[in-house]
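Worked example 3 (structure in, sequence out).
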């Protein structure tokens, strides 16, 4: 990643890249970060890693990419298994309407309220 001149005025855009099994956050034509996922044996999306390039640090892009990913997963009717600590913290502190969450720590399955 490591861009040389990130545009400070560019608006972040979150996209899903199924070939790479991740959601990406872009600033203009620069990839700023991503959150990885893979489907488990039950078809649930396990989010296990989130990364934002240091050149884009301090802009809240980790939150932007995870928020966009969770909203999209909810719209698609898929279930999230949060493993990445950043994704876990995000879901503990943010309501995502319609999102089905399968917690690995025994909290069980829950669906966020609308």
């Amino acid at each position: 990643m490591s861009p040389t001149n990130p545009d400070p005025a560019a608006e972040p855009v979150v996209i899903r890249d199924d070939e790479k099994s991740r959601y990406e956050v872009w600033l203009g034509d620069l990839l700023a970060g991503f959150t990885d996922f893979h489907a488990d044996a039950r078809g649930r999306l396990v989010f296990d890693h989130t990364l934002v390039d240091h050149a884009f640090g301090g802009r809240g892009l980790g939150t932007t990419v995870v928020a966009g990913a969770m909203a999209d997963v909810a719209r698609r009717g898929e279930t999230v298994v949060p493993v990445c600590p950043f994704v876990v913290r995000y879901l503990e502190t943010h309501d995502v309407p319609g999102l089905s969450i399968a917690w690995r720590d025994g909290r069980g399955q829950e669906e966020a309220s609308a």
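Notes: The chain has a mean pLDDT of 90. The radius of gyration is 14 Å.
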